[in-house]
Amino acid sequence: MTATIDRPRAGAPLPTKPGRPPRRLVDRLRDVLTSPKSGPVLVTAVLFVAVFIVGGVRYNGFFSGQVLLNLFVDNSYLIVLAVGMTFVILTGGIDLSVGAVVALSTMIAASLLQTGWSPGVVIPLILVLTCVLGLLVGLMIHVFKVQPFIATLAAMFLARGLCYVISKDSISITEPTFVALAVTRIPLGGGLSITPSVVIALAVVIVAVWVLGFTRFGRTVYAIGGSEQSGMLMGLPVARTKVIVYVVSGFCSGLAGVLFSFYTLSGYPLTAVGTELDAIAAVVIGGTLLTGGYGFVLGSVLGVLVLGVIQTIITFEGTLSSWWTKIFIGALLLVFIILQKVLTARRR
Amino acid sequence: MNALLLRTVSSRLFWPVVMLLVLVLINVIAFPDFLTVTVKDGHLFGSIVDILRNGAPTLIIAVGMTLVIATRGIDLSVGAVAAISGAVACSILLGSSDPGNPATVAVAVIVALVISLVLGVWNGFLVSVIGIQPIIATLILMTAGRGVAMLITEGQILTVDSAPFKELGSGFWFGIPVAVVIGAVIFAVAALLTRRTALGMLIESVGINPEASRQAGVRARVLLFTVYAFCALSAGIAGLILTANQTAADANNTGLFIELDAILAVVIGGTSLAGGRYSLAGTLVGALVIQTLVTTVYTVGIPPIVTMVFKAAVVTAVCLLQSPTTNAAFAQLRQRLAARTARVKEAAAS
Fold first, then answer.
1. Per mean pLDDT, which of A55-64, A206-215, B172-181, B210-219 is the most reliable?
2. Which pLDDT score, from 0 to 100, does residue B161 have?
3. How many domains, in total, are found in chain A?
4. Burial of B38 (C-beta count, 10 Å sphere; 0-12/13-18/19+)
5. Which UniProt keywords apply (chain A) (predicted)?
6. CATH of the domain at A281
């Protein structure tokens, strides 16, 4: 998906014009930066590095490998969520239910573990349940032509309500395997370490990159986002793909819920309120076009890291309060959407 | 008779009204005095009055939302705007030396509403001038707005002690709860403006095809600004009612999920999210359905928070009933039935 088609544009010098190599380089750079495909991702990468440098200049101890790794440790569940959301948004849909499904997964995990179920049963059960929920949402969207926004809204109400059906109070998880997974640190040498959750999240990212970049299913996802009609006329399995995308998102939300329960070691009905917005924001900041068709999973990971680094800076600052995070995320979202708008407008 | 029945059934208001009646019926069976309204100290009391009063904020926002959805838009930021409006009013009241003074309250309310209006204009700007999809444009304010509200309250829950302000949430005018009066006035104003003038038709034309209506001389941009500003204004009013009811501004929880309730009310009322057609009466019924559902769940003894499951069931049911697939299936069934009746008649005749 990274290959770009070189098209000479009106007014631009021909690519083969001899004698002016620096101009060509600038041209190509501008082309890459203004392409709706890779431009926003690169801008996000630059932004991430810039924010990280600002943090490093301002605070002692910010420039450490562990601060960088902690971005992954603290946001592993959000990375998994953003991966699922990327699939949905690439087809031009949206999934508002992910935050509620995360909360539901933590509730199911906590309550079943409390009654003595084995984690080896509970985790697969959660994943199957959330996949089924995703399947139902997908069918509602495809068969009954309900707008993704409304169908996933219903799923969100359902999941959030079921949380309260399970329990109104917080349930703590004391199951040894979960606790072990929560406290285990995998040493990377030099005093650096990550958690098993990070490994799981990165595995999900790798699988997603492979699926979207190198499989027929992935290409169909991009094709649907480009134009559903054309995909249908080309004989692509549009219906199946559209439904599966929501199953993928359901699976990712379930898995993110499991990771979240490793992280917090409890289930609480009000956890992860608004997380769907963080996930959407991460995907958008990562350069995926909300109308579908363009975007990369790695961009979404970068989006999560940008949100994470803002959070870290606010933590380091100490005096800044948590509400600035929300305002910053909103402002970033605005900047990136306008950027997308400008980039896509130029290409059309 | 048959034709009349058919016309009633195919009316957009049919299913929502049926749903409302079923809910009321369940209540009446469970609590025979559900419909009784009593007068105490010159004020009306009763389950119906409670439903109307508690449903008023949702209805007020849903009226604004209906017009936004009619332009094929959506406004996710109403909850955040409600929180900001409440936070502004409370911080002004707390900052003044005499929060009980009606003039102070008036200033607080006016400033809060002006700020809501500005936020609405901002949404309208993003949608109509920059051309961002409405769901995303308002997502920005939804995300950042709660942060702004927390900034105003400095992360605390501001409790105010002001009798005139409290009236907004729990007071009575001529025996009717103030919130209900405000809701009725806003509903009436919106209905009069859009149904007695050409405004409603122009809004619908923008919803059907903004470009075509612009070329036909409709000032689409101004209309979009107007509906988003109106929606934010109504969210601001609802925020003031909610805040006054609690006598506290809670930046995190005031109006949490209310955007979804409002959208739900609009959808239940039969307004299509694809824009171009809307029904304010439907929205009124939708808001009543939601509030009655909440009250029913509450009085039946199910923990109130579980209502979200019931809401999910209602949204799903309404969406499936309205879906083109279901309609097509129904049409086919009707055709087959008609064909069979014709055949039976033919067989009987021959």
1. A206-215
2. 83
3. 1
4. exposed
5. Cell membrane, Membrane, Sugar transport, Transmembrane, Transmembrane helix, Transport
6. 1.10.3470
Cα A188 to the chain's mean position, in Å? 25
- Please name the member of B126, B144, B154 whose beta carbon is closest to the beta carbon of A326: B144
Tokens of A234: 């080309």
Q: Of the candidates A229, A291, A275, A242, which has an alpha carbon nearest to the alpha carbon of residue A100?
A: A275
pLDDT at A82: 94
Q: Which of B152-161, B237-246, B317-326 has the lowest mean pLDDT?
A: B317-326
Q: Which residues contact residue A82 at a Cβ distance below 8 angstroms, ignoring those fewer than 6 apart?
A: A279, A282, A283, A286, A300, A301, A303, A304
- Contact of A282 with A304, CB cutoff 8 Å: yes
The Cα–Cα gap between A241 and A204 comes to 19
Cβ-based contacts of B324 with chain A (< 8 Å) = 145
Q: At residue A285, does pLDDT exceed 90?
A: no
Mean pLDDT of chain A: 83
Task: Classify residue A206 by burial, with Cβ atoms within 10 Å: 0-12, 13-18, 19+.
Answer: exposed
- The DSSP code for B127 is I
Residue B267 — φ and ψ, nearest 5°?
-70, -40
For residue B222, give the nearest of B113, B115, B129, B116 by alpha carbon.
B129
- Residue B321 is predicted with a pLDDT of 76
Arithmetic mean of pLDDT, A329-334: 83
CA A22 to chain centre: 37
Reported as a single tens digit per residue, the pLDDT across B258-299 is 888 898 899 888 887 777 888 899 999 999 998 988 888 877
Instruction: Sort out which chain A residues have CB atoms less than 8 A from B146's CB and list them.
Output: 274, 323, 326
Q: What mean pLDDT do residues B119-141 have? A: 89
Mean pLDDT lowest among A3-17, A170-184, B55-69: A3-17
pLDDT of residue A1: 43
Residue A39 lies in a domain: no
Strand partners, A187: A193
Question: For residue A145, which residues of chain B lie inside 8 Å, CB to CB?
Answer: 323-325
- Touching A: B residues 291-310, CB under 8 Å: 303, 305-310
Altogether, the residues listed in chain A come to a count of 348
Length of chain B in terms of residues written: 350
pLDDT surpasses 90 at B9: no
Q: Which amino acid is at B19?
A: M
Question: Is the pLDDT confidence value at A7 over 50?
Answer: no
User: Average pLDDT for residues A66-94, to the nearest whole number?
Assistant: 90
- How buried is residue B143: exposed, middle or buried, by Cβ count under 10 Å (0-12/13-18/19+)? buried
Residue A323 is assigned to a structural domain of this protein:
yes
Task: Write down the ipTM of this complex.
Answer: 0.78
Q: Looking at CA atoms only, how far is residue A160 from chain B in angstroms?
A: 7
Return the number of other C-beta atoms located less than 10 Å from residue A23's C-beta. 11
Catalogue all structural domains in chain B, each as residue range(s) with its CATH number.
53-306 (1.10.3470)
**CA A144 to centroid of chain Cα atoms:** 27
Query: Is the Cβ of B157 closer than 8 Å to some Cβ of chain A?
Result: no
Please tell me if residue A234 touches chain B, with a CB cutoff of 8 Å: no
Mean pLDDT calculated for residue range B91-113: 89
Kindly state whether residue A175 falls inside one of the protein's structural domains: yes
The helix or strand, by DSSP H or E, that contains position A171, with its residue range, turns out to be strand A171-172
* Window 290-309 of A, Cβ < 8 Å to B: 290-291
Q: How far apart are CA A4 and CA A9, in angstroms?
A: 14
DSSP for A282-295, written as a single string: HHHHTT--TTSS--
Q: Are A89 and A277 in contact (CB under 8 A)?
A: no
Is A268 within the bounds of a domain?
Answer: yes
